[in-house]
């Protein structure tokens, strides 16, 4: 097995891409949770639950 070394710019770019992916997931999940809470009349908007993440994940993966 060969040792693979990534240069500094590649690591920075990868970490920025991952950061943007997570930020987008949080924003979309928050919007989905807000839509779900309006439909079900709940008011807990500070916690993003797994259900909201599961609902946005397919489209998020297609967009990235």
Automatic annotation (TrEMBL):
<dbReference type="GO" id="GO:0003677">
    <property type="term" value="F:DNA binding"/>
</dbReference>
<dbReference type="GO" id="GO:0031297">
    <property type="term" value="P:replication fork processing"/>
</dbReference>
<comment type="similarity">
    <text>Belongs to the CENP-X/MHF2 family.</text>
</comment>
<protein>
    <recommendedName>
        <fullName>Centromere protein X</fullName>
    </recommendedName>
</protein>
<keyword id="KW-0234">DNA repair</keyword>
<dbReference type="Pfam" id="PF09415">
    <property type="entry name" value="CENP-X"/>
</dbReference>
<dbReference type="GO" id="GO:0071821">
    <property type="term" value="C:FANCM-MHF complex"/>
</dbReference>
<keyword id="KW-0238">DNA-binding</keyword>
<keyword id="KW-0227">DNA damage</keyword>
<dbReference type="GO" id="GO:0051382">
    <property type="term" value="P:kinetochore assembly"/>
</dbReference>
<dbReference type="GO" id="GO:0006281">
    <property type="term" value="P:DNA repair"/>
</dbReference>
<dbReference type="GO" id="GO:0000712">
    <property type="term" value="P:resolution of meiotic recombination intermediates"/>
</dbReference>
<dbReference type="InterPro" id="IPR018552">
    <property type="entry name" value="CENP-X"/>
</dbReference>
<keyword id="KW-0539">Nucleus</keyword>
